[in-house]
UniProtKB/TrEMBL annotation:
Taxon lineage: Bacteria, Pseudomonadati, Pseudomonadota, Gammaproteobacteria, Vibrionales
Recorded superkingdom: Bacteria
A UniProt-annotated Pfam family: Phos_pyr_kin
Alphabetized InterPro entries for the sequence: HMP/HMP-P_kinase_dom (IPR004399), PM/HMP-P_kinase-1 (IPR013749), Ribokinase-like (IPR029056)
Gene (UniProt): thiD
Protein name as annotated: hydroxymethylpyrimidine kinase
All copies of domain Pyridoxamine kinase/Phosphomethylpyrimidine kinase, residue ranges: 33-281
GO molecular function: hydroxymethylpyrimidine kinase activity; phosphomethylpyrimidine kinase activity
Native source organism of the sequence: Vibrio gallaecicus
Enzyme class at the top of the EC tree: transferase
Length: 291
């Protein structure tokens, strides 16, 4: 019997002839998590597990583990820029996932390079707060993110506190509150928004709201009782970017990404990592995607 990831990968293969297949390359622009559960490390794991080749540009180094973030060191701007130039001038990058950017100047550099190199797909996970509650994006940088980078995105993937920070509305406490945020999220200028409802912990299911220019729909998955949810946002946005790079339309990429993160959470307790919020299980399906 095929594993869930084998099934996801088969869906991709069935939609593409062999002659159409090239190595789908995805770039993650994000911070490094020394604990390995989120950030660049989670992105690379998710992209690899879903069948793409991952490359990276590191924007910040965090001193971090499953219990929290103790220090953040932003990478000097010239080194962020040189990393971006290095990968874009050599690799055929089809999709880009943007995560932690730390400050306004780094956001501006990333936006400038995205405009310069124009990758086909841009997924932005507006990382502002870690699972532990630690602030990862300076408040002064939120307006820069909204003005410079979000309007370039195919999709942004805020959780409920991030949606509130971006719109100025209260943090949603129900699906109805999520619906009330739709117009403000559309006004940010991205082509689409995936508002993640994982923080509504009393709900039986984990429901995300996919907001398109003229419609919105709920994407639902079973909620699994586990404290090991470190890196879920990084993982989901990376999986969506990976599936976009493989030629899937946006709706399909989001649905495949949702299936992948749900299974990674379902298998999270098979790992025993750290004493706090442990990571999801990116490779729960083993080596199913090795061709």
């Amino acid at each position: 019997m095929a594993s869930p990831i084998q099934s996801l990968h088969s869906e991709y293969l069935s939609q593409n002839t062999i002659s159409d297949l090239t190595t789908p390359i995805v770039l993650t622009i994000a911070g490094s998590d020394s604990g390995g559960g989120a950030g660049i490390q989670a992105d690379i794991k998710a992209m690899s597990a879903t069948g793409s080749f991952a490359c990276s540009v590191i924007t910040a180094i965090t001193s971090q583990n499953t219990q929290g973030v103790s220090a953040i060191f932003p990478i000097p701007l010239e080194h962020v820029a040189s990393q971006l130039d290095a990968v874009f001038t050599d690799l055929n990058i089809v999709a880009v996932k943007v995560g932690m950017l730390a400050d306004s100047e780094i956001i501006k550099i990333v936006a400038e390079k995205i405009k310069q190199y124009q990758p086909k797909h841009l997924v932005i996970d507006p990382v502002m707060v870690a699972t532990s509650g630690d602030l990862l994006l300076k408040e002064s940088a939120i307006s820069t993110l909204k003005a410079e980078l979000i309007p370039l995105a195919d999709i942004i993937t805020p959780n409920l506190p991030e949606g509130a920070a971006l719109t100025g509305k209260p943090v949603p406490e129900s699906e109805s509150d999520m619906q009330d945020m739709v117009e403000e999220l559309r006004a940010l200028g991205a082509k689409s928004v995936l508002l993640k409802g994982g923080h509504l912990e009393k709900d039986e299911n984990s429901n995300d709201l996919l907001i398109l220019p003229s419609s919105s729909s709920l994407i639902s998955a079973k909620r699994y009782p586990t404290k090991n949810t470190h890196g879920t946002g990084c993982t989901l946005s990376s999986a969506i970017a990976s599936f976009l790079a493989q030629g899937n339309e946006l709706n399909q990429a989001v649905n495949l990404g949702k299936k992948y993160i749900s299974e990674a959470i379902a298998h999270a307790d098979e790992l025993h990592v750290g004493q706090g919020h442990g990571p999801v299980n990116h490779f729960y399906a083993g080596h199913a995607n090795v061709r």
